[in-house]
Amino acid sequence: MQHTIRTPSLTFAALLALGLLAACGGSASRPSLTATSTPQGSGSLVAAQPTPTAAPELKGTINVSGAFALYPLMIQWSEEFQKLHPNVRFNISAGGAGKGMSDALGGLVEIGMVSREISPNEVERGAFYVASAIDAVVPVTNAANPLREEILSKGLRREDFANIWITGKVTDWKDLYPGAKAFGDTALHVYTRSDAAGAPETWAAYLGKKQENLLGIGVFGDPGLAEAVRRDPVGAGFNNVGYAYDASAKKQNAGLLVIPIDINGNGAIDPDENFYEDRADLVEAIANRVYPYPPARPLYLVGKGPFTGVAKEFVTWILTDGQKFNIESGYVPISQDRIKSDLEKLQ
Question: What is the pTM of this model?
Fold first, then answer.
């Protein structure tokens, strides 16, 4: 298969070693489609029929970069598209939504993957975008957190998260669960993203702020942040769904514990708030808007002006046949109304 995939790292550990920064907030920049007159009885000919024109074979290279959130789904989309169009090649890299937008506007890629809302300034600079999928950012801690049972039964409220990442008022897990018994160190270690990205921007939006307002030790990339928390028994971070859950088992990744959100603020995780054990249950909660928006949000494909050529064909396929791969990959499909609107933009 003619398919080149460039990833920023091969392992979570490598990303952690490269990306762990003693900083808070983020930095500004990372199918093959491939006649004549006919005798009719004795001595008669019918008029020559038009010869059907074969659809031109799609070929070319599509360069894609950007959000870690969309990277796993983009890989699947590209592989499925290549089954139909084997002469189309892909160069795909993950580096954060900021890099995807920068690369797209700079003409370095045909498609930028962006996991946050597109700003008016970016539109003025030529950003053309369509929605391609929906996923969410989830708060995570270490699976061996000394207050694991309290976390699972009571969760945390939005204001609790704000006191961790925005005000810094909470510095110990016991502050969140007064009276809870725990052995060993319970000091709360806060992690965030060091790169300009959609996940921290979305998590900050949930807390009413911007990425630069988030406190914590900065780590590069989704895999790096997950690895940092996985190595720290009292760590707290946030990840896109695709990095908090195992793609094959569709369960939470080993070493991570997704922190349930106490949506109604009653101090307990009620049955209708308890949908984190299986990825499919979480995806359903996102689709039904039970999980909050944000931190759920659309994921965008961005170009410098309208998509053209083979990139346009690929984006059109994503919005039509490609949507069937969203759910199986742990994403929510875009609504039919939004797809209709975006397909009209593509024409």
Answer: 0.82
Distance in angstroms (rounded) separating the CA atoms of residues 261 and 151 = 10
Domain ranges of the chain: 4-10+29-34+56-136+297-346, 137-287
Q: How far apart are CA 28 and CA 125, in angstroms?
A: 17
89-108, pLDDT tens digit by residue? Answer: 999 999 999 999 999 999 99
> E strands within the chain?
4-5, 60-66, 88-94, 111-114, 127-142, 189-193, 217-219, 235-240, 256-258, 296-304
Average pLDDT, the chain: 87
Question: Taking Cα atoms as reference points, which of 155, 105, 107 lies closest to residue 257?
Answer: 155
- Range 4-10+29-34+56-136+297-346: architecture per CATH: 3-Layer(aba) Sandwich (3.40)
**Residue the block writes with tokens 């979480």:** 282
Pairing of the two strands 127-142 and 296-304? antiparallel
The Cα–Cα gap between 300 and 112 comes to 8
Predicted confidence at residue 55, as pLDDT, reads 55
Q: Is 107 left (phi over 0), alpha (psi -120 to 50) or beta?
A: left
**Whole-angstrom distance, CA of residue 4 vs CA of residue 218:** 30
CATH number of the structural domain 137-287:
3.40.190.10
Select the more confidently predicted residue: 39 or 154: 154
Q: Could you tell me where the beta strands, DSSP code E, fall in 115-227? A: 127-142, 189-193, 217-219
Answer positive or negative: Cα dihedral of 136, 159, 269, 185. Answer: positive
Cα–Cα distance list, 48 to 39, 44, 51, 52, 277 (Å): 10, 12, 9, 12, 65
pLDDT given at position 40: 35
List Cβ neighbours of 127 (8 Å cut-off, separation of 6 or more).
101, 104, 105, 118, 302, 303, 304
User: Among candidates 319, 232, 213, which has minimal Cα distance to 20?
Assistant: 232
pLDDT, tens digit, 9 for 90 and up, residues 206-218: 999 999 999 999 9
Instruction: Give the separation between CA 300 and CA 307, rounded to whole angstroms.
Output: 13
